[in-house]
Write a structure and sequence with these properties.
- This protein is 48% helix and 12% strand.
- It is an alpha+beta fold.
- The strands form two sheets. A two-stranded antiparallel ribbon has the order 1-2. A two-stranded parallel ribbon has the order 3-4.
- The longest helix has 30 residues.
- The N and C termini lie far apart (45 Å).
């Protein structure tokens, strides 16, 4: 097991334990506000994992950063990493040609795209950030990205309410 994978497993498990009350509260909230009733708590989306192997990514049915909490299960299971390229559908154009390099690492819960403006970035710049990460990632870079993720999420949330 590599240092990155060890960090993912230990970090993912620690976050799952620490955030389990929040995970339960979000799940209950989504279940109680489901429209139509019984629609389900989780949203399923097929994405390309390591080496292009597709898997079903689970997120909560909510439009908040809390929707990503179930992704920690994918991190612990080895389908995702705490830090990596943005998860994309297997049929996405970035999963072919030059962009296929992105499939040499696991998709991430966060990554350079998350801390650099995410939806505000042009698609080409997000692609370049992902490919730069694939070519140059190391555990120190992952730690810097993780340290900058929560402030980046807070800034975007604050900007929406301003």
């Amino acid at each position: 097991m590599t240092a990155k994978r060890t960090f993912d497993v230990l970090g993912g498990l620690a976050l799952l334990v620490l955030l389990s009350p929040l995970v339960a509260a979000v799940a209950a909230s989504v279940a109680l506000s489901a429209t139509p009733p019984g629609h389900g708590v989780l949203r399923r989306r097929t994405v390309a994992g390591l080496d292009g192997r597709p898997f079903t990514m689970l997120t909560f049915r909510t439009r908040s950063p809390l929707a990503a909490l179930p992704l920690l299960l994918h991190v612990v299971a080895g389908r995702m990493s705490l830090v990596g390229p943005c998860p994309l559908a297997p049929s996405h154009r970035e999963c072919a040609g030059e962009g296929r390099r992105r499939l040499s690492v696991r998709p991430g819960l966060t990554g350079p795209w998350q801390i650099s403006g995410r939806s505000d970035l042009p698609w080409e710049e997000r692609e370049l950030l992902d490919l730069h990460y694939v070519d140059h990632h190391w555990l120190g870079m992952d730690l810097r990205i993780l340290a900058r993720t929560l402030p980046a999420v807070r800034r975007r949330r604050a900007a929406r309410f301003a």
